Amino acid sequence: MTEQKDIQMLKQKLLNNGVLDVLIDNPYEGIVVVDKQGYIRLINNTYLEMLGLNIEDAMGKHIADVTSHTKLPQVIESGRTILYDFWEVNGRKFIVLRIPIINDDGEIIGAIGKSLYADMTSGKLLAKKLRQLEKELEFYKAEFKKFHKAKYTFDNIIGESEKIKEIKKLACQIASSISTVLITGESGTGKELVAQAIHNASFRADKPFVRVNCAAVPENLLESELFGYDEGAFTGAKKGGKPGKFELAQGSTIFLDEIGEMPLTMQSKLLTILQERELERLGSIGSLDLDVRVIAATNRDLEKMIKDGTFRQDLYYRLNVINFKMPSLRERLDDIPLLISYLTKKLNKKLNCNVHGFTEDAVQLLMKYHWPGNVRELENSLERVFVFANEKLITPEQFPMLLKIVDVSPALYEPKTLTEAVSQTEINMITSVLKQVNGNRRKAARILDLHPSVLYRKIKKYNIK
Ligand SMILES: Nc1ncnc2c1ncn2[C@@H]1O[C@H](COP(=O)(O)OP(=O)(O)OP(=O)(O)O)[C@@H](O)[C@H]1O
Ligand SMILES: [Mg+2]
After folding, report:
1. For the chain, which end, N or C, has fewer CB atoms within 10 Å of the first or last residue's CB respectively?
2. What does the UniProt keyword field contain (predicted)?
3. Are residues 379 and 318 in the same domain?
4. Closest residue to atom 7 of ligand 1, CA basis
């Protein structure tokens, strides 16, 4: 309270001593003040001189009638400051600053425009410095883009199974929209791959793909990491502030990976951003219209998390506008041969080796395993084999671990859902009965009390040999 009083007293003193007049009527800055409707209520001589006008031509007129490219009406409407714009009038360049005037009740009652000569010596120096900074910025932007490049496209999503075909089709269709996308699925099923492919097929492809791993950033840093901060926002804040990942993704795509690990407090903040589509750095005065496509991914069961109270339902609805559920590899074992040949090319190139292919038995072995780590696990298993491969053809013996597991499996594999448990039981029973009857499918069908065609379908579905 006393502080407020002191400020008031100081203001009064300044007014009495004519300091304000000097501030307004100085030869270095053009100043114009407009009211809520945009009519000029104050204008200094410097500003009049810039425009080449007399006081009668300007005072009481609408700002848009006096200078056609004014942005003051915009400032009044949005209540937002526009900092450091360049403005050219009568062949001279100015740096301009536009600020809303807000009264104690928070109402916008007008706006101030301030213009500084940019073609004086100091202005020239400033412009030179700015050009230099712009050049540096371009350089870092290019570096940043290289670093943040999304390397995968739809061609890298391998698979002919119905589920994968559906995903590719939908992803192609929605790539160019701005709708938020949620990608769910087990670890290693290609969630990030799809996110990158969507970005690369969109009109934002030449802009950076900004990835945030919500699980890897410590909780207390996540807010500044996502939204950035202004200089002085808190003790220890970096000089000049720091842009957040959302700001870096402006005009492009942000990939919020492992969204299920985001703490509840941050979930609320993210929800606000997505609802208001406005971005504000911590401790800043201005804000920015958000033009960012959000793609989120998780291997967690968000619906269960909502029930447990660890994920916000309203945020889930915001994110789940378009949903992709990536199938596990065991749901599309038929795609394994295709994946093997794709990965063989990829790994030959990466490891500089010359593997020609896999024997039929080796492919069959890989199709029997349950791949809890999905395509990533498949890729890693092949990589381990390729590193030591002397032969051009890969045989089952080169996967000793798999041979062991597949032999004693399926018991080793723990189903996660009822459907998986049912499939697992079916696989176990069919395999053991087929063994008993030496592979005679008709006999097996009788023992299992199934119509032979049903048994054939199941054998095919589960790839039972
Ligand atoms: N359909 C696919 N075709 C080709 N490669 C794939 C496919 N799916 C996944 N991969 C490969 O598998 C690896 C893992 O994929 P990705 O990182 O996208 O998985 P993820 O779902 O994000 O996993 P996590 O949940 O563990 O982060 C990558 O090397 C990716 O290229
Ligand atoms: Mg991932």
Report:
1. N
2. ATP-binding, Coiled coil, Nucleotide-binding, Transcription, Transcription regulation
3. no
4. 190
